């Protein structure tokens, strides 16, 4: 038996604007909620003359688009997320802090559209 494919979700939002901690609104007025946040320290090797390694935090955020009739769940206490994300070519967003976020996944689970973004290391374009 073949697994059923998820219905197509179209393009990711062009912009996501901060509404309150962990809650964003897109250009169509849809509400997106940060339902999971992964924060991992990472080590990055530097060139000659620089310290052997520096610490940079890797952040991955899972956003779910709520149906219009759904009530907003209690929000995560979220820090490190930008006030606004703007879609750029190459499946990535740029935040108001000028950092880029890669779209790891954009799909639908049951009837909930979801978007997973991972912050790229500083200096990534």
TrEMBL record:
Gene3D superfamilies per the UniProt record, alphabetical: TCL1/MTCP1
InterPro entries on file: TCL1_MTCP1, TCL1_MTCP1_sf
Pfam families in UniProt: TCL1_MTCP1
GO terms assigned for molecular function: protein serine/threonine kinase activator activity
Family that this chain belongs to: Belongs to the TCL1 family.
Protein name: T-cell leukemia/lymphoma protein 1B
